[in-house]
Amino acid sequence: MGQGKQDGGGIHAGHRRRAKEEFLARGLSGLADHRVLELLLFYAIPQGDVNPLAHALVERFGGLTGVLNATYEQLREVKGIGENAACLLRLIPAVAARYMELNADVSGQMLTNWQFQELLLPLFLGARNELAYLVCMDAKSKLIACRPLGEGILDQVGVAKRKVVEIALACNASRVALAHNHVSGVAVFSSADVRTTLELRELLRQVHVELVDHFVVAAGEMISMAASGYLKGR
After folding, report:
1. What is the percent of the chain with per-residue pLDDT over 70, rounded to a whole number?
2. 218: closest CA among 76, 120, 105?
């Protein structure tokens, strides 16, 4: 099969070829969001000019991050986005999260703030619902396991206090840290976050497990309740 056929043929084949060559030579550095989306759309829409569609996506969702965080249903609402294109755009953040998770191998290591980020941020990449995790460590803060606690708001049914204690004991953890995301995109602690954390810390103390931190993730940012001073002197 010739190059023209592979690139869809016609007057747009040269543009597609040049765009791919530019990416292979320079990566994504300096490329506008719509040009990055063009590259992706080449593989879902094999023929024609996808530049207007890339611009439409940026306009609808505000940029590349918004596009990749959009749901399948939201993407399909954009005229010209079919099943293949919507599926591909949803696949990108999922693959990125898997890649980051596989590369964040901190098993058996003493967890620092940076390693907490390496461990936790991939778990929330592209998440559309509130998720929560429990990081279980030994007495020297070495990772034992990172277990999902479920979906929902922390002080409601999503994370039952009993489940946190059960997982900590099952992992034979001496220390634990909580993590959950805010789908609002705002990385701040709510009063409910602080209240629930303090209640969980007291419950865990009763079984000789120390709750050392609670992290909130939003829009790729992670903040620490311990570093913010909420757990001092209590």
Report:
1. 84
2. 120
Alpha carbon distance, N-terminus to C-terminus of the chain? 70
pLDDT in tens, 81-139: 999 999 999 888 888 777 665 555 445 455 556 678 888 888 887 777 888 899 999 99
Location of structure tokens 């940076």: 114
- The sign one gets for the Cα dihedral 170, 206, 142, 129 is positive
- Are 97 and 145 in contact by the 8 Å Cβ rule? The answer is no
Beta-strand relationship, 210-218 and 175-181:
parallel
138 to each of 110, 168, 187, 205, 211, how far by Cα in Å? Answer: 9, 10, 28, 15, 12
Q: Which residues contact 224 (CB under 8 A, 6 or more apart)?
A: 113, 116, 213, 214, 215
Residue partners of 151: CB distance under 8 A and separation at least 6: 129, 130, 131, 132, 158
Number of residues that make up the chain: 234
Q: What are the Cα distances from residue 22, in Å, to 35, 48, 96, 122, 200?
A: 11, 19, 22, 28, 52
Distances (CA, A) of 207 to 123, 164, 233: 28, 12, 20
**Reported pTM:** 0.57
